[in-house]
Amino acid sequence: MSPTEQLIDFVRSTRLDEIDLEARRIVRTMITTVLGTTVAGAGEDGCRELRGLLLENGGAPQATSLVHGDRLPAASAALLNGVMARALDYCDAMEPGLHLGSSLVPAALAAAEFRGGVSGEEFVTAVAVGAELGSRLNLTEALYDGLDPTGVVAPLAATATVGRILGLSGDQLLAALGLAFNRAGGSFQSNVDGSLAVRLIQGWAAEAGVTCALWALRGLTGPHNFLDGVYGYTHLYGRGQVDATTFVEELGDHYALTGTMFKKYPSCGLTQGVTELALQARRSGILADRIDRVEVVLPPYAYRLVGHPFAPGTNPRVDGQFSARFCVANAFLRGSSRLEHFTPTAVTGKEVGDLAARVHVTADPALDTRGHSAADLIVVSQGSEQRFGLDIAPGFPGNALSQGYHDRRLRDCLAATAYPLPDSRIEKLMESLKALEELDDVTDLVADLISPEADADRTA
């Protein structure tokens, strides 16, 4: 079989009991994490406006917007839930900046509702095969060269997940993936400029997964040589330096999705290391009001994404999420890095801005040899210089977070929403998620993810 045929067969035929146990654990963590961040992000900038537009557009009531409970077309529900999931940037990710879960989980949930229900076993399997396809299509920093990995890969991964849930035939899945290939795109300039496009791209990928699968079900086709054709994925994104056979090496035996990281702090993955170092420095006795200067050293790729000057604009939360200067200043000043530290008021505070002005960021190619998330921090305080460094930031493979931390993050997200859930629903949800693979119908979770305090058009 060709690499494309092998990927399609893997998506369609893999059983849950065939998936590596560590990969299954990561997928379950991805699902629970994203459900939490979706609830927490429901009231964030862009989410409210997008919801209003989707309600105005209307359409068949096929799936549900979480928190609000609106009944929307499946693609619209996936779009909105995907945007909400990424709004706080507290979700899973993968080097060099690929976010899969915040597209796969909303797309899978919308597809499950569209289908009329799906077991927890099949839901986890569908997310797993989509995440694995996406992880294998993921490229390097140099090949992306400013392209947003999420915008490039997540539409294909989400389409694979939805295709599995909807039971697409091999030919239909080929057509759907070809269509999704034509939806791939996006730039990291969105992140650098602090725009809402960062979260919108995530939603677009989820929407594309549903749309492309439904189009293929109706007989619409995409290029069948999307992967390795003359103008296919390996040419356009792999720049002729990648052979499609590498995408299927040890397929089904080794799971590339085990390279997934989960964030300890609610900001860009490339700020995790410097945040950790700033907190280490603070615990060593260095206090914010005694700092003369902080030097942050990052690999060049990280520097280009988060090393720019800190100048909050119209979207302060995004500006803070993608600023090494802000994240370091925040950690020194507030002694932690939490969701409430990234509100517009917290990001634009004078005290944190003044400290951020004393944080200077440089790039050093030597850090590339130490790892994607490597960072150094040099603090000058009262004339004394102290150095801190790490090679693997917390949450990345090799420095994984504990299950207890994942549980706390989920509860923090559920508590941080603008539309609180009743305690009874939270406890029921937590218990259900512990037995995710055993659920008879994963769409039963939806009722516990709707807030009675959120206004909604619940027309069935």
From TrEMBL:
Organism superkingdom: Bacteria
SUPFAM superfamilies in UniProt: 2-methylcitrate dehydratase PrpD
MmgE/PrpD C-terminal domain segment(s): 265-429
GO molecular function: lyase activity
UniProt domain MmgE/PrpD N-terminal: residue ranges: 5-240
PANTHER family: 2-METHYLCITRATE DEHYDRATASE, 2-METHYLCITRATE DEHYDRATASE-RELATED
Similarity comment: family membership: Belongs to the PrpD family.
Full protein name: 2-methylcitrate dehydratase PrpD
Organism, as annotated: Streptomyces brevispora
